[in-house]
Records
---
Amino acid sequence: MKRTYIVVLFFLAICIGVVASQLGNVSSYAHFQDKNLLEGKEVRLKGTLATTAPVIYDPEVDPNSFTFHLLDMHGEERKVVCFDEKPIDFERSDEIVLTGSMKDSVFYAKDLLVKCPSKYVEEEIEKKEL
Amino acid sequence: MHEHDDVVLQAINPAFGQLGHFFVIIAFVAAVVATIGYFFAAKNERDPAASGAWHKLGRGAFYTHAAAIVGIVITLFFMIFNHHFEYQYVWQHSSMDLPVKYILSCFWEGQEGSFLLWSFWIMVLGVFLTFKAKSWEKPVMTFIALQQVFLVSFLLGVYILGRKVGSTPFLLLEDALTQDPVFLFNDYMQFIQDGTGLNALLQNYWMVIHPPVLFLGFASITIPFTYAMAALWTRKYESWISPALPYALFAAMVLGTGILMGGAWAYEALSFGGFWAWDPVENASLIPWLVMVAALHTMVVSKATGHSLRTNFVLVPLAFFFVLYASFLTRSGILGDTSVHSFVVSGLENHLLLFLGVFTAIGLVLIIRNWKSIPNVKKEEATSSREFWMFIGSLVLVFSALHVIFFTSIPAFNELFKGLNRLLGTSIKSDFTAPVDAVGYYTGVQIWVGVLIAGLTAIGQFLRYKKSDAKKFWSALLYPFLLAVALTAWSAGKLGYPLIGSANMMGLSFPFLHPNALLLLLGYFTVFTNAQYWILILKGKVKLAGGSIAHIGFGILLLGILISNANQMVISKNTTGINYGDDFDQDFKRDNILLYKNAPMVMGDYLVTYLGDSIDNRKTFFKVQYEKVDNTTGEITQSFTLYPYLLLDKKSQQLTPNPDTKHYITHDVFTHVSSIPKKDAPQQDERTNQHTLAIGDSIWLSKSTLILNDIRRIVSNDTIGAMAVFIETDGSKSEVVQPRFEVVGNELRSVEVPLQIGEGGVTFTTILTEEDKFVFSTREANIESDWIIMKAIVFPMINLVWLGTIILAIGFAISMRKRILETRRKAA
């Protein structure tokens, strides 16, 4: 066999090896009863803001954390402490993706991604007066 | 109905839309005719009379197409510029108060406009090729025109066989939003006085210039691809490399510049702090570039030695495939969940898939049918030859691209699995998420790619084609290597890098030279060896040194990425706040700090003061002053003011933060305001704080500053204690404030003493004898509750990133010129 082919195969093998070893990190979105979460592992979780409890952010006390309640994909509600500043207009978000882990049935999120609702705003004409 | 005397009545002008739409149809039909004309011209090459007639048709049709594209652009521009809000595209992407300089950005905010931009550039390159491509014109232009057929079809917005094909930017609002009751009125435009405006994030000068550059890069990758396809079609497997190489270099230069300009936009306008975040949209533009750079190296090898010819026919089409695939990912809405700046669900998925599918099929058929006929050098490259190692380097780049695209495609895999489940009734899992730590995850693998590429870039030019002399090779590298080692040791110390770290590959962990230190070493090494090659071997001739210069640029870029990213320092660290326990110490970044108006705070080397806000149209600016104070003399040695702002988005009524950055040669200071008080909050407030001071230290209050001048001991019959002597000053006058901390008998006394200039008081709380420090508490009354939550980051050496990119682009340009001259000389 030509050396070129050996080299190409070698690279392919490394490529597959690296990807395969990292595939373990790829997971599905978790929910609050997820096995990994209950074992204390770090997960990614998708849900919506629960309207039953207020979003609490008092930057004069702590600008780097805020608290809210999240409904997971199964509609289960939990308190969430997020270690970040509250995004402006967070209350208007329609989907929230959190990265973090659970402790004493409170979810601690170190990372937060809010689906920007601006992209999804219904096209509606602002009427001056009708 | 009321009277609307004060309202300027806007007429509904259907003529513009009709004109624009007419141009779209012309552009589409002409592209179809040009494809057919060029196709038969190339097919009948052996029959000059027939070929000539077809050629004439093809060319004429392409020029008509070109004129029509220009017509579309001018019409759309005119509509936006003159605020014709009766058109959906104009209404959706612009507004009356939009500064003129951002009008161009409206063009590419929407899908339609960005397709227009893309096909505009291909049109320009196509017209250029009709003059320059000579014998290659007919087959090459066949593929160019075919691509234009697809690109313009995205702008059609007509129904064919009951299906809507594409979407036109010339649609009237009343036809787009038919359900809205406003259209029941004949004169509905009196209710639509303004557009919904341009997305706040796009109102940035980088957003005006980076999309055209990026799309020119995407468009120019088409050219080497069409040459490769033409070569396979006409069976001229070797002679296409020379004319295609300058275009490949051009594509690499322009796309590379565009990517980094996109990074500059992210750095200046987005709030994630940094120029690269492995965002799927960023990845989608990076991947074609990586493959294009790999391909142009194998093209150079083929030109010089005849090796790697088949590799070119894989890599060049692969680069183009990734352009189409990247467009599919970013435009189909599939990435919606994972990216901050992709397009939303568009209904164009199938159309995009067809585009991708047709060109992939054409490519695959042509490659497979010709594979065996492509000349292949029987003799293998020597292990000591330049061509062998360039081939390896290209493989590494392709590996890098494949790794990034695999994980960027996870949302696409989910859609694929969902589709399969629907079709076959299977139940494959289809809700995979990207890896939890995206940055660490991509960087963790790509840093090793960087190490390999930097190593190869450093030594590549010292290898000779065919075979290299080992002794010469090693002796040439010795001095640059020693110099790089010395500099690495020096700067690793300065940057605080550990030299030994543990490498983590495939789950195994082993001690190794720390990858950051290794990359630092190889970055220096690349710069030195290539500089040496340029000066000693090429005798400093610029015209020949394109490769060396590009490699030097790459080395500098690597150093810049490494130093600015690994050493960025958040200086707004907040030590107070809620304590959630030690378990979360690592996760709790505490990067934001609360800054009261007029109350300075020490951040890093700076004393930072928020001085108030000002409103300009929809922007609220926050004046943040930075001062560097010399510790010994107390003098201000450096002072600057930053104006980060919040912009109220017209469409969504949301506030979007926009950071501000102070640029220095050696570092940048980046400031971002993330939160402000609710405007309905009480304006008056009382605030108390604790301070631990040594003599000479200050307390900054909102109306005055207290300087601890002295501590005097109090000893009398029944009293023992201390009195603090504060000078209270507001810049114009000074007063003395003397709180006491004393023990009278068995009783501890520490009473609040009123402030003389500000309102409130100061209390001497305790003495920390061991540290020789004193604790005070202050209370301020009746102060304005005005504050900002801000984050400040210092990026060291970020200028190396921009400098490296510019040098890299210059290197590509020099190489391009050299290759063009070579081709011309050969033709003469």
Note: The radius of gyration of chain B is 33 Å.
---
Amino acid sequence: MTKQIELSGVNKYYGAFHALKNIELSIEKGSFVALVGPSGCGKSTLLRSLAGLESISTGDLKIAGELMNNVPPRKRDIAMVFQSYALYPHMTVEQNLTYSLRIRGVPKAEAKKAAEEVAATTGLSQLLGRYPRELSGGQRQRVAMSRAIIRHPKAFLFDEPLSNLDAALRVHMRKEIRTLHDRLGATSVYVTHDQIEAMTMADHVVVMKDGVIEQQGAPLELYDRPANKFVAGFIGSPAMNFVPAVVGEDGRSLAVDVGEKQTITLDQQLQPGRRVTAGLRPEHLHFVEPGQGVFRLPVGIVESTGSATYITTATAAEVTIVETARRPVKTGDIIDVSIRPADVHVFDGETGLRV
Amino acid sequence: MSDTNRNRLMLVIALIMAAIYLFPLYWMYITALKSGSEMFATPPSFWPSEPQWATYAFVWESRGMGRYLWNSLVIAFGSVTLITVLGVGCAYVLARYRNVWVDIGLFLILMLQVLPASLMITPIFVGFSQLGMLNYPRLAVIIAIAAKSMPFFVVLVRATFMAVPQELEEAALVDGNSRVGAFFNIVLPLARNGILVSAILIFMQAFGEFVYSKSIIQAVELQPASVGLNSFMGPNTNEWNNIMAYATIYVTPILAIFVLLQRRIVSGLTSGAIK
């Protein structure tokens, strides 16, 4: 596999503010990469640096093997879909689609044909003569996508393209974008703050925080082996439970502090007495017969979505449990839950790094 | 008081205010049509008994109004062109960059706007005289008006540019355009209305400009209509009907433009400010 985008030692400063810190990232041709993180983590800055809308302060940025540090956006041969779609309001859909071709001097007839072809694949054929203001949100989204596709660029950059759509349409467009990506064999970089979008769409997820890449890898790798507490809490919904714990004297058990002290076994050997944080995913905590479980917990809040029930305990360190079987649980009940040793994530008490 | 009654009261007040405000205009129109004796009649008549339409032709001919209006047009178009060409770029830069220097620049621009023409004319006159600009008096007036009205234009057009989302420009850059190309292809068409409205306002200002023209242009054949109107005035002026006819000819086209474009002007002025 060839590398389509390579970033090495990339830093970006805005005056004294260090927006991107020593970014190392290589994106293979044909892959779908999601940049995900809370707002202000630098993911949009990174994307805009790829597009050339921001310059990087230090480091190397290569697209298809060519150094792009000081190349203006128009010569990078990349396409970008903006959060607000950024459709040109004074142009019809067709003019919006063909704008990039017309700038490059493609003959009119050819550009028109290209627009019709793309419109046919994205379901815009009937709308070519309309202006952006006459389109619905989903249609505008499609025009923005088509405008990117028409050029066959080296890479597609998406800047939170679905955040202005309603929930149902978002789920639908998620699949549509991924299908389109596969069909075009494109290389895509997708910025989102929604970890579900990142997990479902991408081959490779990059989790960022405060300008640093916290972890990158395949979606399930991030879910199964988060490198630190931040990634563990960010990936997965509802979020992972964190409870303070101390490694037992045998080194193979954890004394967990959830209201009352409880002991869970580990499948690894740790230094006895070490202070750690135990990470327990809500979906890994399961109900057991009274007296059989590791935890006896008082129920605080019960929320039912129909397919699953979210139970939050009334303990000092709140614990959320997701239960898909319907159970008559109500506030004030005492429940018994257990967890498999392999499902327990252990993080260092101070650094938050995975142990 | 019920809502409808209050609305009616408000309407009556508004009508009275409008009547007071527009009375001079009305007086201009009817005085132009009065005969010599009717003009000075006591009590004054509010409608001419025998409209004297011939006054217009007489004033147009005797005063050489064609030449005056032509000069006014030359000065107004010249100023608007100069201001638009220079001001659009300036407004764009001030709209897109935000830092201390831009703030200082804007402050200075607004400062210029505050200084009255009658104060500015002395240094301008001396400066132009040193440069030999007084040999080209209409050009000198165009430059002086451009300097005076530019701030107003820049502030208005800047607001228009700020209403054009930056993402559109970025999309154009990524689509393969240069910064300059994106400005002409995307930003300028979207700001067109605001620029047009501001230019019309500047045109109307420049068309009626008096202080600079009166001071700088000595030759009668190069003077604009505003100075021509002033030359009527003397210690023993009594030909009010001719003066009003002159004023009517001078002002009616501008009024017509304003009435026709009124809706667009108002929306153009506020669109930049609100969004």
Note: Chain B is about 80% helix and 0% strand.
